[in-house]
Amino acid sequence: MQTPALPNYYTSVKKLKELLEETIDVEFCGIISDFARICNNNHCISRNIFNFACCYLLKSMRMKAKLLLLILFLFPLALLAQSDHLTFKGVPIDGTLSQFSNQLVKKGFTKMFSERGQAVLQGDFAGYKNCYVAVSTLDNEDLVYMVGVMFPDLDQWSLLESNYTKLKEMLTTKYGKPIEVVEEFQSTFQPKTDNDKLHKLKFDECTYKSIFETDKGRVVLRISHESVMKCFVVLGYVDGINGLRAQDAAIEDL
User: Fold this and answer.
1) 126: left (phi over 0), alpha (psi -120 to 50) or beta
2) In a domain, 68, yes or no
3) 20 to 30 A from 46, CA-CA: which of 99, 150, 151, 227?
4) What is this structure's pTM?
5) What is the Cα 156 distance to its own chain's centre?
6) Do the domain assignments include residue 149?
């Protein structure tokens, strides 16, 4: 079986970042900014409380009943310390590029490329074979804030739309109804054939996207393309806390 050609990593990841960064808007950052900063500032404090409570209480308690109370007391603290960030494949979107990529390798992905704040891995995702996963860090810091999945290239609009619809239904089951849905062709005369719709996509006259919002970040699904040669579905995860830091850094440049 022939191995598919690897994509142009720099072009693909840059395109993916541009698509996903459109979703880190000012309104979203305003809504979560206070919550995100509090979580980020108290992340280490929560862990310190957790560690201190473990050491102190385990030394002083002797009875099983008290041990049970200890467990019940520490459980919420453990959740608080570990649940601040949006997750991808169960891995919090946080930490250095190397740390996060290695966690995905443990999940079964193969690392294809890692350089200049970007990494690309390959593997199966959500029932689809040979997907590419692009991981991006902040421009000025080795801190992961965004992960995108590029599903296999397709040369038929009907297949692209089918994959998009299927993924949208699964995401709705997990995250609830999307906060924004745009599914339209930008033209006076609507395309009717499969080829016409694909042509509109390739020349940026088509917008198919769904945006899901959680208290930890945003998830973005859309049909996209790279030049006129490749068309695919993209699924992006933008962490709320670290995504806000990316927005703050961009504002500082103004």
Assistant:
1) left
2) no
3) 99
4) 0.72
5) 26
6) yes
Which residue in 5, 18, 29 sits closest to 225, CA to CA? 18
CA 31/CA 35 separation, integer angstroms: 8
Token couple for 196: 């016409």
* Domain membership flag for residue 124: yes
d(CA 89, CA 210): 20
**Domain of 172?**
9-34+85-252
Residue 97 lies in a domain: yes
Amino acid at 155: D
Instruction: Give the span between the Cα atoms of 6 and 39, in whole angstroms.
Output: 39
pLDDT band at 188 (very low <50, low <70, confident <90, very high): confident
Total domains present in the chain: 1
pLDDT of residue 32: 32
pLDDT, average across residues 207-211: 97
The answer for residues whose C-beta is within 8 angstroms of residue 161's C-beta and 6 or more apart is: 208, 223
